[in-house]
């Protein structure tokens, strides 16, 4: 009832509000919703709820990117995703290793893998809001959205190598499984299946539309149907469903026809909003506040707080500041700092940690062995960082508006260049070198 007021006046999105409402409904306040009281079913429900919401969000990002975006921006996207994730993975693992000495380095790598991906749902709520549309260049918003979608699926190899080294009897067998299963079977096959399904559905719907076999309402309904269909097929065979659904969304809108037929429809936005709100209410009730203080596992509030602060400063910002000269979409150090700060962690981290628990043995009351200690420590650490990210990143925009805001758009001093050639966009008129030299 007050959503427009909260979004347009105070710039507080549904992520923060949904999580807060979930905490209120949860076992520590009202006691109305308590997912952790559902026993063994809770892990499966959490895994599948986050899977479906991520699938819808990733498909939406793929569909809403500009025509043939992945082909035109593959260089910047690869540089922004792969090195940044790898650097952040090792940095976070090092922080965890220093703060939680009961965990081995392999367990720290597995925990860090859950915190490596940027959450696409929180990112979409931030870069798709009215503040970002006014102050952040569209090129930067698109690359942040594409990166948040791509690196969610690419978190699988980071997690699987850690788990294989922990669970497999020999390193040789672990690396063999990682290459054959983690990369070829999960990543490569997932992307291939998703892209093929997207292209096939795109041609079928174009054919049906040209011959009048499908109405507008049914055309828009394919938005959700294809996302669920792709997720179901790929997850059933055990491949990377997150990359698959993003590939399907990118493929179905490759020629821009799908966007043209659905651009005036609000159905997809309504579905995304319902899914996102429901999921963050669930996460708010699911958060294990009592596990944030478990001295027997070496988990204490001050260690968790120190970890989150270290992640906030070191996980992405140094890497992107170092790499941005090779990322054409990021033109100034301020844009690089903005991109590094908004490395949100949310539903994606919860999903990856739930997937890891699904592969790890169920721990005893007193964990025995490396795998059981990891299974007991994983979600308290991940969920605390997720809660901190929701608060800090979700409230960063309201804080910026109180401080007078930040404007990353091309400054007015470049307007004479645009006016001299109005048929060209600002990014095509102003060279990257000139844009970097201009004061922001």
From TrEMBL:
<dbReference type="GO" id="GO:0120029">
    <property type="term" value="P:proton export across plasma membrane"/>
</dbReference>
<feature type="transmembrane region" description="Helical">
    <location>
        <begin position="336"/>
        <end position="357"/>
    </location>
</feature>
<dbReference type="GO" id="GO:0030007">
    <property type="term" value="P:intracellular potassium ion homeostasis"/>
</dbReference>
<keyword id="KW-0050">Antiport</keyword>
<dbReference type="Pfam" id="PF00999">
    <property type="entry name" value="Na_H_Exchanger"/>
</dbReference>
<dbReference type="GO" id="GO:0042391">
    <property type="term" value="P:regulation of membrane potential"/>
</dbReference>
<protein>
    <submittedName>
        <fullName>Cation/H+ exchanger</fullName>
    </submittedName>
</protein>
<feature type="transmembrane region" description="Helical">
    <location>
        <begin position="149"/>
        <end position="167"/>
    </location>
</feature>
<keyword id="KW-0406">Ion transport</keyword>
<feature type="transmembrane region" description="Helical">
    <location>
        <begin position="377"/>
        <end position="402"/>
    </location>
</feature>
<feature type="transmembrane region" description="Helical">
    <location>
        <begin position="270"/>
        <end position="289"/>
    </location>
</feature>
<keyword id="KW-0812">Transmembrane</keyword>
<keyword id="KW-0739">Sodium transport</keyword>
<feature type="transmembrane region" description="Helical">
    <location>
        <begin position="301"/>
        <end position="324"/>
    </location>
</feature>
<feature type="transmembrane region" description="Helical">
    <location>
        <begin position="12"/>
        <end position="33"/>
    </location>
</feature>
<feature type="transmembrane region" description="Helical">
    <location>
        <begin position="102"/>
        <end position="128"/>
    </location>
</feature>
<dbReference type="GO" id="GO:0015385">
    <property type="term" value="F:sodium:proton antiporter activity"/>
</dbReference>
<feature type="transmembrane region" description="Helical">
    <location>
        <begin position="179"/>
        <end position="207"/>
    </location>
</feature>
<dbReference type="InterPro" id="IPR006153">
    <property type="entry name" value="Cation/H_exchanger_TM"/>
</dbReference>
<keyword id="KW-0915">Sodium</keyword>
<dbReference type="GO" id="GO:0036376">
    <property type="term" value="P:sodium ion export across plasma membrane"/>
</dbReference>
<comment type="similarity">
    <text>Belongs to the fungal Na(+)/H(+) exchanger family.</text>
</comment>
<keyword id="KW-1133">Transmembrane helix</keyword>
<feature type="domain" description="Cation/H+ exchanger transmembrane">
    <location>
        <begin position="5"/>
        <end position="401"/>
    </location>
</feature>
<keyword id="KW-0813">Transport</keyword>
<dbReference type="InterPro" id="IPR004712">
    <property type="entry name" value="Na+/H+_antiporter_fungi"/>
</dbReference>
<feature type="transmembrane region" description="Helical">
    <location>
        <begin position="77"/>
        <end position="96"/>
    </location>
</feature>
<keyword id="KW-0472">Membrane</keyword>
<dbReference type="GO" id="GO:0005886">
    <property type="term" value="C:plasma membrane"/>
</dbReference>
